[in-house]
């Protein structure tokens, strides 16, 4: 009873634990407003790439980098065809390295180094710069990339060259992952104090290749939510699995317990039957055998009384059926002894059936002649009468009980 109680307690504890996990996970799942989420193209940004650009540049070499900054008519120089080519490599950490080549013309009538230009002059520029994507500071966007940068360059106008220290500010806006526009303004400070500083502005069509993508800030947040939802889902699945395992374990324990109970009952039944058989065998053994005189099948009074007791035992045990085996001693011919043992069987059965009223279906019998001697008294061995008598017998064997 104690074991049953402990097993029942264990099952209750396991099931309660599994239910608690399921309940808590379900609350967490509902609280987070979980829904079926999937990452899509809008959740990713270009993390690194190569970039090539083709566009226009505008040079302001008026001699004053701040005054009349947007005086396109008098100070900005430009040509009608694409005049800027750039190539750059941009990395995941926001840094980029670029090489830029430009061509321009100083037009007659424009303000150059504080004076009105009277002669058209060619302008060539070659710059290298290091830039930084400000999205790394303000947060990633998929279409707008502001940046700042520094670098060095070389510019030549009217066969007069000058090295420059450069600073740039600009932004790119993207139509797709590959195509976009770039707008920037660069200040170029000459390395030779005898020469003037100037500004250069640009507008270019950009193309990205060898792209490696990463998740935007919103994409990372969505990924974290997807992972959390998956964790919750896994926890719920684990809780359900634990509950199912607890249920199966309880069922298995109950089946094993029932199997053990049935086995114990079956063993108890067999033990009881064996004990009953043993008891009956002992009672029949205590009654002893029916013995006959030499060459006789007659039942003497003492052995009739023995059969009376045997009949009473059969009446007390209605399911008891017996086999009577009758025998002869070794003296005389074998055929005669076989016949004599069969007469002794008949006499024994007739008494039990005819005189004591035992149902014939509960009795069977066989005569064995001298084939089953109980001692050494065969045809070749001398034995006294007392030993030969032990072989002239009817004995009883339980068939059913």
The sequence of SSEs as H and E is HEHEEEEEEHEEEEHEHEHEHE
What is the CA-atom radius of gyration, in angstroms? Answer: 59 Å
Oligomer: single chain
Q: How many domains would you count in the coordinates?
A: 3
Description:
- The structure is a single chain.
- The chain has seven helices and 15 strands.
- The model is unreliable at 27-35 (pLDDT under 50).
- The protein has three domains: 2-31 and 219-258; 41-215, Porin, CATH 2.40.160.20; 288-400, 60s Ribosomal Protein L30, Chain: A (2-Layer Sandwich), CATH 3.30.1330.60.
- A hairpin with a 4-residue loop joins strand 3 and strand 4 (95-106).
- Helix 1 (2-31) packs antiparallel against helix 4.
- The chain has 401 residues and is α+β, with helices and mostly antiparallel strands.
- The longest helix has 71 residues, at 217-287.
- The protein has helices at 2-31, 72-75, 135-138, 217-287, 301-316, 334-355, 385-389; strands at residues 44-60, 76-77, 84-90, 95-106, 111-112, 115-116, 121-133, 144-157, 160-174, 179-190, 198-215, 290-291, 321-326, 363-367, 393-400.
- An eight-stranded antiparallel beta barrel has the order 1-3-4-7-8-9-10-11. It has a four-stranded mixed beta sheet with strand order 12-15-13-14. It has a two-stranded antiparallel sheet with strand order 5-6.
List the helices and strands and how they pair.
Blueprint: H1 2-31, E1 44-60, H2 72-75, E2 76-77, E3 84-90, E4 95-106, E5 111-112, E6 115-116, E7 121-133, H3 135-138, E8 144-157, E9 160-174, E10 179-190, E11 198-215, H4 217-287, E12 290-291, H5 301-316, E13 321-326, H6 334-355, E14 363-367, H7 385-389, E15 393-400
């Amino acid at each position: 009873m104690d074991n049953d109680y402990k097993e029942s307690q264990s099952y209750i504890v396991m099931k309660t634990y599994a239910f608690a996990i399921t309940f808590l996970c379900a609350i967490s799942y509902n609280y987070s407003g979980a829904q079926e989420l999937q990452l899509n193209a809008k959740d990713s940004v270009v993390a690194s790439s190569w970039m090539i650009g083709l566009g226009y540049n505008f040079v302001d070499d008026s001699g004053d980098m701040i005054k009349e900054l947007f005086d396109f008519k008098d100070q900005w120089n430009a040509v009608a065809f694409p005049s800027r080519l750039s190539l750059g490599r941009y990395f995941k950490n926001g840094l980029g390295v670029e090489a830029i080549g430009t061509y321009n013309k100083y037009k007659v009538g424009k303000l150059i180094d504080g004076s009105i230009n009277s002669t058209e002059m060619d302008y060539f520029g070659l710059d290298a710069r290091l830039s930084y994507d400000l999205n790394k500071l303000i947060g990633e966007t998929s279409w707008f990339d502001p940046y700042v940068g520094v670098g060095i360059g070389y510019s030549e106008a009217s066969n007069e060259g000058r090295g420059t220290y450069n600073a740039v500010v600009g932004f790119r806006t993207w139509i797709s992952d590959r195509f976009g526009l770039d707008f920037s303004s660069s200040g170029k400070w000459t390395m030779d104090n005898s020469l003037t500083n100037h500004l250069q502005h640009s507008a270019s069509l950009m193309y990205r290749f060898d792209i490696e993508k990463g998740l935007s800030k919103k994409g990372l947040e969505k990924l974290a939510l997807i992972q959390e939802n998956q964790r919750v889902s896994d926890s719920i699945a684990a809780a359900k699995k634990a509950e199912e395992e607890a249920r199966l374990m309880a069922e298995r324990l109950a089946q094993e317990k029932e199997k053990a109970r049935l086995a114990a009952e079956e063993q108890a039944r067999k033990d009881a039957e064996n004990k009953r058989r043993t008891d009956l065998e002992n009672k029949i053994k205590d009654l002893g055998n029916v013995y006959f005189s030499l060459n006789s099948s007659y039942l003497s009074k003492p052995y009739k009384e023995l059969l009376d007791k045997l009949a009473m035992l059969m009446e007390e045990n209605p399911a008891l059926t017996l086999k009577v085996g009758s025998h002869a001693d070794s003296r005389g011919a074998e055929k005669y002894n076989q016949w004599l043992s069969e007469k002794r069987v008949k006499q024994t059965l007739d008494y039990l059936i005819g005189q004591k009223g035992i149902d014939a279906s509960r009795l069977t019998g066989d005569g064995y002649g001298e084939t089953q001697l109980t001692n050494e008294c065969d045809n070749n061995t001398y034995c006294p009468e007392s030993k030969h008598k032990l072989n002239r017998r009817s004995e009883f064997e339980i068939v059913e009980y």
